[in-house]
Amino acid sequence: MTAHTTTPSRSRRRRRGATHASGRRRGTGRVWAGAVALAVLGAAGFAAAEWVPPADGKAGTDAGRKATPDRSATPTPTTDARSTQRAKPAPAPSRTPTSTPTIPATGPGTFVTAPGGSPKAGDGKTLRYRVEVETGLDLSPADVAEQVDRVLADPRGWTADGSSAFQRISSGAADFVVKVATPGTVDTICATQGLDTGGEYNCSVNQNVMVNLKRWELATQYYADDVRSYRALIINHEVGHFLHHGHVTCPGPGKPAPAMMQQIKGLKGCVPNVWPYDAEGRLVTGPAVP
Predict the structure, then answer these.
(1) CA 180 to CA 133: how far, in whole Å?
(2) Could you tell me which residue, 54 or 143, shows the higher pLDDT?
(3) pTM of the predicted model, to two decimals?
(4) Can you list the domains of the chain with their CATH numbers?
(5) Which range (53-57, 121-125, 209-213, 263-267) has the least confidence?
């Protein structure tokens, strides 16, 4: 007996018909379910991606790509990114030329030595020096020392005479000591040699090159916009006294004021200058005065 010669019974035909009919109903249900699912997913996709119809009205594949967030675009900062930005410290404000530092009238008369040292500057006899700042001042001894080092090593300074050389030390015997101190302390030390600095001036007595804090911070009217240059003038003038140079005055109207001129008392027609020598190695001087 073979399967193809067998005549199907009525009951079998009914079962096949029933199976075929149920298959049509299931297929139709799947189509409707799929359509509903696509509609729901499409609406959800548009809402999640905040989709905007393309300007050219195209749909299909292009619209599908637009429904996906563009990762190449600049992202909106996350909470972490904003937190990182807030965590960045603001730069510390620097002192402006118009700010006025506090100048104590007097101090304890004790000093802090600047650490380290400097190379020898100049070809003459080496003069060793220390840099000290009065205790309690709002000055960095290291910063003050760095400024003094630059002044004494400058080729327009006293090394240009060919007989003087300078080297800073922080311990051991020194030939002279540059001290930045309050006006009261400067007055006290300068008075030991009969000098009256009146709370305003600097002096050089024995081994002490005394720098008045008021002049270091405020300069004078002629150097109000260039305080660091006036600091160079203080160092050159008082170290010049240590080297036995006396006061001179203005050599003539329009000429550079000598470093050994008391410029704080007026320029007398000269123009500001803080260096003992000019760029050509010539001494800047004038008529001697008491």
Answers:
(1) 5
(2) 143
(3) 0.67
(4) 111-265 (3.40.390)
(5) 53-57
